[in-house]
């Protein structure tokens, strides 16, 4: 059977997703995890964004979206006064997000991995060393050496030894305040579809409390607590009672966390790539942790597959660092700004927070901007074209443009995004000759590339209208569903050049 093409270090959701993606590309994968076995407890990362749900559905795990809970209303309070509330607008083919415990997500992904013969998982294998050469990487564990052409490190925040072995720094900031997190099971009528955020409530003065509904009458409660806080059963019971009163409840899980804002200096070092919390840590407000780690895995997987299959040169892997490091920097900026408002560092910051909350200045209150896909507008793989309109209002998707993820429009028999995961996709307006493009592009690349006419997908014209696609326009979509090019008055040379650019292939007009 031969050895693995890729070793994935870490069997959390990011590593699980990476393994499933690599196997879908036909690559043999070995997953190593330092833990003795799966620890299926605790909500941990609970909020999974629509585009992550879409990816998992494409991997045969639609149950995350199906079992998760989507709350409809977000309420924000200052002390005992509601400042504002907002609700999500029109729903797409998938919910905008779901709340579901990380333990359940891991369980569902494990089932998919168990059904995949190309994936082997070995527990109780802590990686203690990495050595790479021009042909591959040797991974040292307690039970000996393992080797593969490439390694993808998804080992979480505790991947200190691996980062150190690669010469990668992990600069940033750790916040002094801690957060007590409890999962409780209780009957709370009226709370089942609401997320509640409290600034300075009487029962946690000067700090915040966040309450999320989850499936099965379970609620996740986060209290900001002072440095050095020690959780006792009496204090936890008191805190819960202050919120829910005398209703019966069951304490399912508890933990105390410190939040961090850190980013690796490099996400690619030779044949080793870093992903997820091994590469970046952000505060959880806005759910930008796991929801950025999974796109790391997808970005890495299609590029590793392209290189290993001979569809692209190894230089393509450097764009993994270019794209995902930029995404990590943006997430760091967004979440750091949130934490500056939530946890002011000095009296001036606290005074500003009080002033904003007293005035109820909604536009100035920052309790986290919800996770969204990063837009590869400036990526070396993106062919410039229709201008990017910039960050849209909260809860809305950006208009299609090169670098933006393809809208997930409903089409007859399914969703448009379902067509994107098997390779590159070329969408053509009605004035484009698909036969001619197929003939030319077959000479440019051997990578999987499907050519579809918009009129063939939806003969009513509604899809082209929804996308805003012109009749003479060609859209090139990457395997991660990001638009690589939107070419007006599309000719074969322009499209061939865009395909070559998206794979880092040398190209000259014939």
From TrEMBL:
User: Which intervals hold domain FAD-binding?
Assistant: 6-333
Alphabetically sorted, this entry's keywords are: FAD, Flavoprotein, Monooxygenase, Oxidoreductase
Q: Which InterPro entries match?
A: FAD-bd, FAD/NAD-bd_sf, RIFMO-like
Q: Which cofactor does it need?
A: FAD
A GO molecular function assigned to this protein is: pentachlorophenol monooxygenase activity
Entry's EC annotation = 1.14.13.127, 1.14.13.50
Checking Gene3D superfamilies in the record gives: 3.30.70.2450, 3.40.30.120, FAD/NAD(P)-binding domain
What enzyme class is recorded for this protein? oxidoreductase
In this record, what's one Pfam family?
A: FAD_binding_3
Q: Which domain of life is it from?
A: Bacteria
Q: Tell me what this protein is called.
A: Pentachlorophenol monooxygenase/3-(3-hydroxy-phenyl)propionate hydroxylase
Species of the source: Nonomuraea endophytica
């Amino acid at each position: 059977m031969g050895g693995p093409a890729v070793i994935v270090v870490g069997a959390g959701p990011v590593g699980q997703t990476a393994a499933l993606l690599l196997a879908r590309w036909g690559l043999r994968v070995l997953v190593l995890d330092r833990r003795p076995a799966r620890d299926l407890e605790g909500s941990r990362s609970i909020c999974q964004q629509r585009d992550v749900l879409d990816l998992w559905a494409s991997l045969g795990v639609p149950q995350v979206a199906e079992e998760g809970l989507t709350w409809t209303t977000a309420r924000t309070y200052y002390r005992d006064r509601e400042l504002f509330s907002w609700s999500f607008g029109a729903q797409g083919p998938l919910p905008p997000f779901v709340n579901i415990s990380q333990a359940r997500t891991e369980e569902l992904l494990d089932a998919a991995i168990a059904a995949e013969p190309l994936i082997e998982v070995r527990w109780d294998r802590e990686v203690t060393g990495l050595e790479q050469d021009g042909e591959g990487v040797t991974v040292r564990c307690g039970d000996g050496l393992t080797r593969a052409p490439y390694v993808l490190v998804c080992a979480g925040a505790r991947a200190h030894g691996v980062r150190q072995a690669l010469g990668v720094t992990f600069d940033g900031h750790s916040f002094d305040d801690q957060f007590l997190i409890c999962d409780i099971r209780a009957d709370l009528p009226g709370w089942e579809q609401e997320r509640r955020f409290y600034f300075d409530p009487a029962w946690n003065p000067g700090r915040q409390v966040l309450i999320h509904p989850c499936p099965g009458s379970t609620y996740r409660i986060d209290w900001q607590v002072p440095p050095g806080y020690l959780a006792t059963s009496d204090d936890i019971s008191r805190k819960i009672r202050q919120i829910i009163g005398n209703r019966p409840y069951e304490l399912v899980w508890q933990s105390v966390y410190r939040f961090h804002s850190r980013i690796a200096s490099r996400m690619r070092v030779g044949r080793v790539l870093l992903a997820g919390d091994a590469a970046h840590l952000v505060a959880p407000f806005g759910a930008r942790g796991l929801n950025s780690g999974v796109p790391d895995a997808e970005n890495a997987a299609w590029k590793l597959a392209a290189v290993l299959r001979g569809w692209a040169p190894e230089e393509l892997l450097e764009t993994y660092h270019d794209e995902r490091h930029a995404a990590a920097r943006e997430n760091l900026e967004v979440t750091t700004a949130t934490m500056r408002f939530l946890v002011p560092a000095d009296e001036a910051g606290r005074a500003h927070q009080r002033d904003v909350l007293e005035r109820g200045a909604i536009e100035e209150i920052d309790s986290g901007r919800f996770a969204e896909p990063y837009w590869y507008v400036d990526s070396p793989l993106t062919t410039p074209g229709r201008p990017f309109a910039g960050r849209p209002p909260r809860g809305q998707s950006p208009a299609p443009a090169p670098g933006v993820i393809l809208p997930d429009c409903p089409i007859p028999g399914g969703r448009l995004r379902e067509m994107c995961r098997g390779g590159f996709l070329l969408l053509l307006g009605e004035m484009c000759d698909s036969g001619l493009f197929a003939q030319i592009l077959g000479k440019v690349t051997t990578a999987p590339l499907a050519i579809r006419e918009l009129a063939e997908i939806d003969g009513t014209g509604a899809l082209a209208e929804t996308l805003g696609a012109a009749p003479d326009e060609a859209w090139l979509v990457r395997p991660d569903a990001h638009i690589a090019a939107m070419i007006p008055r599309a000719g074969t040379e322009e499209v061939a050049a865009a395909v070559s650019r998206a794979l880092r292939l040398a190209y000259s007009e014939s």
